[in-house]
Amino acid sequence: MERKTNCPNCGAALPQFGGKCEFCGTRVVDLTMLDFDAQEPTMFLLNLPQSITGGQKAMISMWANPELNSITMEQNNTDVYGGWGNYKMFTIPEPQIAFEMSLHPCADPRDSSLYKLKIDKEINL
User: In terms of pTM, does the model score above 0.70?
Assistant: First the structure.
């Protein structure tokens, strides 16, 4: 069943697992498909930055069990001052959520490889 995800900025429809909103340009990564309680491994795909691949597009795919190591939520506030007498006009809330997760690699059930690196062709490692 295909899930529908909307852009949190403008409400336009997004691709199934997030991406860049075609309407407003907001980038969205949908992590709701991660199941940290699952007993079976999950296939992960990761585009590598071209800064470490010599300018070439490259992707790693691997089977792994995700683990949520920590999550913190906090809010900082920025007070804005102005007007006659430089009084406090309003406060801008700045919520922050940080999480750290690990991927524990598992062998690919089809061919026992740990990783696949795709540049121009597939290389099993």
Answer: no
